[in-house]
Write a structure and sequence with these properties.
Elements (H helix, E strand, L loop, with lengths): L10 E5 L2 H4 L12 H6 L17 H15 L3 E5 L2 H4 L9 H16 L3 E7 L5 H4 L7 H18 L5 E6 L1 H10 L10 H24 L4 E6 L4 E3 L5 H22 L6 H8 L11 H5 L5 E5 L4 E5 L16 E3 L15 H14 L5 E5 L22 H19 L4 E7 L18 E4 L4 E4 L1 H12 L3
Parallel strand pairs: 1-2, 1-11, 2-3, 3-4, 4-5, 5-7, 6-8, 7-10, 10-11
Antiparallel strand pairs: 8-9, 12-13
Bound molecules: beta-D-fucopyranose (FCB).
């Protein structure tokens, strides 16, 4: 295959999230989050796994940062755990929680690694959930206050701030189908959550900028939605509906166009959108310097009156059939299709022009743990399928750049094997293997391959 070179200054990095790697669930005054509650609820997470210990990154961050430096990462995206900073969501700031991110930030900067902060990667303080969580408007206001508290401590050193990670998941999986914390199953609650998450983003973005933050963004997981039959009008309508629920419901208001009329009409069939108040859309449209894109897999749909729909997309029953994966899949069962990433980036750049983009997550789960045949006698882990996945998606990203997309960087998901939400530790996304019995880190072949990609700025 042809050589592929990325633009000068293209940012190479890796991403993680607090609850998935930190552990130390009770250290230094950390409060409870909805994922603590959820993971302890029988039947919610595979084999009752929790994030109590995870990768113990809270205590091992210095070694992990040294490993990042060895791999040549230019950037590291991590999330701050709200319950460490404000243990009950609203009350006084807990300085010991901030101390951890202070140490982590300094360790990264010492090694020349640019920290990219995500303020909310799903670990809402449980006390706020007890008051309604994201279905409640006050959560949006508390989020902005918390964001400012983090900025007050780290703002002198952190350049890039992203507010939310994948609000689609927080809202639809957390409140719609209950697969994620807090586990509610109510379409109306899901849409309230969408709005309050966006409002929280807007309030936080405005506050951060006023406090001096220079680069403020948000990370979404927009879908590349494609029709089963490109010639079918019914399939095109299904694409439009799913695109509305996953893409336009976020991207349109974020970029100043307000909620799309067809989406509001769809929502109104399930819940009266009285929670959208005058002026909210203006707040949500706070200027964005960066849009983070997380992409793993494409979505194919058909329009069918008897379609099963999906509980993750309220109101798609009896309208949409989500097609099963065809061709190769990852260990998540997600279809592997790099071309979907090109299509998605090109589409977002075309429909929402002027927004610098960054791939804030992309990667694959493959069953490459040290006990599988993938490890050789010396214990090295040859994750050829992950390398193929990453290679394909980097080529797809490069293709988007050559078609004019303003793509600034690529952050692999994930640096470490970690707690994969409802799947617990059984799904491994890391380019670095973690042995959960002794917390030993072993870079997989993909890590060494990525190191090479970074040093060549290409493939
Ligand atoms: C994304 C999440 C991330 C990780 C990957 C596999 O939806 O943002 O935390 O779980 O999926």
């Amino acid at each position: 295959m042809n050589d592929v070179r990325f633009p000068e200054g293209f940012v190479w990095g890796a991403a993680t999230a607090a609850y998935q790697i930190e552990g130390a669930a009770r250290d230094d005054g950390r409060g409870e989050s909805i994922w603590d509650t959820f993971s302890r609820t029988p039947g919610k997470v595979f084999a009752g796994h929790t994030g109590d210990v995870a990768c113990d990154h809270y205590h091992r961050y210095a070694d992990d940062v040294a490993l990042m430096a060895e791999l040549g990462l230019a950037a590291y995206r991590f999330s701050v755990a709200w319950p460490r900073i404000r243990p009950d969501g609203t009350g006084p700031v807990n300085p010991r929680g901030l101390d951890f991110y202070d140490r982590l930030t300094d360790a990264l900067l010492d090694r020349g690694i640019d920290p990219i902060v995500t303020l909310y990667h799903w670990d809402l303080p449980q006390t706020l959930q007890d008051r309604g969580g994201w279905t409640s408007r006050e959560t949006a206001e508390h989020f902005a206050d918390y964001a400012l508290a983090v900025h007050a401590r780290l703002g002198d050193r952190i350049r890039t701030w992203t507010t939310l990670n994948e609000p689609w998941c927080s809202a639809y999986l957390g409140y719609g189908n209950g697969v994620h914390a807090p586990g509610e199953q109510d379409a109306g609650a899901a849409f309230r959550a969408v709005h309050h998450l966006l409002l929280g983003h807007g309030l936080a973005a405005r506050a951060l900028r006023a406090a001096g933050a220079r680069t403020v963004g948000i990370t979404l997981n927009p879908a590349d939605v494609a029709p089963a039959d490109p010639a079918s009008a019914a399939d095109a309508a299904a694409v439009r509906l799913v695109d509305g629920l996953q893409n336009r419901i976020f991207l349109d208001p974020l970029t100043g166009a307000g909620y799309p009329a067809d989406v509001l009409e769809h929502v109104a069939r399930m819940v009266e959108p009285t929670f959208v108040r005058d002026g909210d859309e203006k707040i949500i449209a706070a200027p964005l310097d960066l849009l983070g894109i997380n992409y793993y897999s494409p979505t194919y749909v058909a329009g069918r009156p008897d379609g099963a729909g999906s509980s993750a997309y309220p109101g798609t029953e009896q309208a949409v059939e989500f097609l099963p994966a065809t061709g190769p899949v990852s260990d998540m069962g997600w279809q592997i299709e790099p071309a979907g990433l090109t299509r998605l980036l090109v589409r977002i750049a075309a429909d929402y022009p002027g927004l610098p983009l960054m791939i804030t997550e992309n990667g694959g789960a493959f069953p490459d743990d040290g006990r599988s045949p993938a490890a050789d006698a010396a214990g090295r882990i040859h994750d050829a399928d992950r390398i193929a996945y990453l290679d394909g998606h980097l080529r797809a990203a490069h293709e988007a750049i050559s078609r004019g997309v303003d793509l600034r960087g690529y952050l692999v998901w994930s640096l470490l094997d970690n707690f994969e939400w409802a799947e617990g530790y059984r799904k491994r996304f890391g380019i670095v293997h973690v042995d959960y019995l002794n917390q030993r880190r072993t870079p997989k072949s993909s890590a060494r391959w990525y190191q090479e990609v970074i040093s060549r700025n290409g493939l």
